[in-house]
Records
---
Amino acid sequence: MLTREFELPGAGPAAWMRLTPSRPDLVTLLVLRPVLQAGVVVSLEVEGSAGTEPIAERVFTDVAKSWVAGSTQGFSTGSGAFVMEPSQNERASQSFVAPGVELSIQTETVEEPDDGQSSTEPPPGGNILLKQRRRVGGFEGIEQRTRLPDEGAGERLAYLWIFPGKSADGAAPRIRLAASGPLSRPGALDATWNTLLATWRLRPIGAH
């Protein structure tokens, strides 16, 4: 059911609707932003609680205006991308598990640089094999390789690289790359680790 139809400033035609009769407390905002120079219409939709409509409209105005036709930076939607200034409160993480190896990637904006290794010691039975500075993707960080006891595999190799980040800078967050696997496969682990570091790239912030 359509409850209100209006023009969202800086975006385009918009409408508030109640799409779930059994949930009158839920409302849905639909926004269409025509981008004439690109010949496309960007469609946005969000569901929220009744009474929060003004907040959703303010946020959607900024989001709709941030879509840039043909941009290769930002959150891609095919023919363009949402390009916004980096926040000072961002965190992202991803992990991957394959036969014999585990990888993890974490980024986080920080108030102060934090290498996370100044007081790090290996657990009982562990041994640090390498600790050095290493430049990865334009960032100067600390690389560490540790031999660790493992009940299942006997021993494991753990790889770690950390860039401490810059204060309140979304374009230079704290970066933590990690990998680990059984000691019986050192060649495969080294190759996987070096490939991960070699593929890390500094991507400039897109312009509006």
---
Amino acid sequence: MNMRRWLTFVMTAVVMLATAPIEIRAETLACPSLNTAEQVGTCPSLRELRIMFRSTCGAAGNPNAPKPGMCDSFEDFQSHKNTVMWEAGDAGFMGYLPCTLPTEKIRTAQATELNLASSRRITKTACDYQGDLTLTLRRRGACALPSGASKGRLDCAGDPAACMVECE
């Protein structure tokens, strides 16, 4: 194929792609059930937590620590950092859940609230569950709550299946 034909072919392909209609499909995402959630990592050991505490806080009650409230005591730090990553649902919801909570409690927790927030082109969908558990999904594109929902928040404590969001 000579150069002229090749350039004509490339230009035709570019024009066809540029003028082709773009189909945007809406996708409904629901807060996943935790009964099929999977723990991804391992919980930190007491030794690992103490090392993290020293490197983050320096010492208990350090007023110069990056997050002084968490550094008031090792017990406060441990309650915040003794967590492990969990994943649930096909869409990729994930979150750090407490290692102190038995797996059975996590798996039986029901969705109570869905929160939606956007920053630039990323939408964050946070599903809150009983027991102060949260799984989050971050994705490109806009999402919207069903009509009648409060701005950015959907209360679905009475009907966990209603925790849904429509995304492009």
---
Amino acid sequence: MAHRLALILGAVLAAAPTSLRAQQAAPIIGGPAAPAASVTLSPCHPACLAPTPVRHFSWPKFAAGFVTSLAAHETAHILTAVAMGGHVSLGFNSGRPVIQSGIDSVRHPTRQFFFSAAGMSTQLLINEVILDWPHGPGVSGEFERGVLASGIATVVFYFTVGRDSQVSDVQQMSVNSSLSKWDLTAIFGGIAATDVVRMLLKPRYAHFFAYPAPKHGLTVGMRLPL
């Protein structure tokens, strides 16, 4: 009896793995067996894990370019006055410092005209040099953008807010020549407008006047955040 029980137990143990394998491989009732999914994960290159570099705008460099252009404006006034035989001095008009040419505009209106025109002419000339100068690939630096912005902003100022002031360059040019303020607006404003168009068409100055700002919508102006 014990011998028979031993034989039966051995037969059951021998058949158990086969039975289990048969149950694992058995198809689902009512449909074919689904094949086993195989997923292969390829390792990511270290470059794709590196964070995207963010180019931060440097306001000090932009301000330095802006002030440099203004300094060139005033320097041109001084050098022109000296070249025309004037005696340059610093005066004040409504509390605002003003460079006085020392030229007798009644006797020498043409000299006074050149003195008044020297400032904006120099800034626009610098802008033209920057725009025409061969550049390498990439975007322009903040200093360069500051210089360009200053030249354009000066023209806009003199033909809007500073148009009718007695010491305004536009007023003095109009008084000491046959050109009206509208003529001067067309000349200087047209050059500045051309510079703006040229910057808009150059990839180097992309987003100069408007660019997308992360988490802040749209930024407009000379990269001035809203």
